[in-house]
Write a structure and sequence with these properties.
Strands 1-2 form a two-stranded antiparallel ribbon. The protein is mostly helical. It has one domain. The mean pLDDT is 89. Helix 4 runs antiparallel to helix 5, helix 7 packs antiparallel against helix 8 and helix 8 packs across helix 9. It is a multi-pass membrane protein. This is Ion-translocating oxidoreductase complex subunit E. Keywords: Cell inner membrane, Cell membrane, Electron transport, Membrane, Translocase, Transmembrane, Transmembrane helix, Transport. Belongs to the NqrDE/RnfAE family.
Length: 223
């Protein structure tokens, strides 16, 4: 007897939370700490961070949609291998597209474009969500996850470029005499900035949890 007969699939109902959880409570970078290689390696400038975020979002959305469409056709025994083939197909498209758009950007991102294939965010969403949910909820959820990943990269890239080079998207922000914090453009700077954002994100999470607890307690007391 197949697993589908033993345990019928439980589909998620489409709600605003389907999209928003990728931005906040399940943010791939700040909440789940996934995809750390590109987060630390290519966020030395805002442009690199934006390009990597958009490329990852494209691969995430397209591969999740295809996995969701084929979820009843892919045998359980070869599902991971099938997901990797699907993801690699879209990574190849992104690889060629970035080469065609800008060789300078392609060189700046380096091998991390091809390494999108092994990004935990994408493979994790294919296995944990897209293979179990319907097409429209998968589309909305993967868009939220991709946007949350892109915003996290932008947060790091903006801080590192402003402090490390004194520019934003290549435009000078400070008068002559400004001494850039060179370490921010180096790998240790990525760790420092990521640590700062994680502290802020966790503080906001705890603050919101306390507010919800106080509100629920007041409502229970009023009853």
């Amino acid at each position: 007897m197949s697993d589908s007969i033993l345990s019928p699939p439980t589909y998620e109902r489409l709600t605003p939370d389907t999209f928003l959880r990728g931005l906040w409570q399940e943010n791939p970078v700040f909440a789940m700490l996934l995809g750390m290689c590109p987060v630390l390696a290519v966020t030395n400038t805002t442009l690199n961070a934006l390009a990597m975020g958009l490329a990852t979002t494209f691969v995430l959305v397209c591969s999740s949609l295809l996995v969701s469409m084929l979820r009843h056709l892919i045998p359980k025994q070869v599902r991971i291998a099938s997901y990797i083939v699907i993801i690699a197909t879209f990574v190849t498209l992104v690889d060629y597209a970035i080469q065609a758009i800008s060789l300078e950007l392609y060189a700046a991102l380096g091998a991390f474009i091809q390494l999108i294939v092994v990004n935990c965010v994408i493979l994790g969403r294919a296995e944990a969500y897209a293979s179990k949910q319907r097409l429209h909820t998968t589309l909305v959820n993967s868009l939220g996850m991709g946007l949350g990943f892109t915003l996290a990269l932008l947060a790091l890239g903006t801080v590192r470029e402003v402090l490390g080079q004194g520019t934003l998207l290549g435009i000078a922000l400070f008068p002559e005499g400004f001494q850039p914090w060179v370490i921010m453009a180096l790998p240790p700077g990525g760790f420092f900035v990521l640590g700062g954002w994680l502290l802020l994100f966790n503080w906001l999470h705890l603050r919101r949890a306390r507010q919800v607890a106080v509100t629920n307690g007041a409502a229970a007391h009023a009853r």
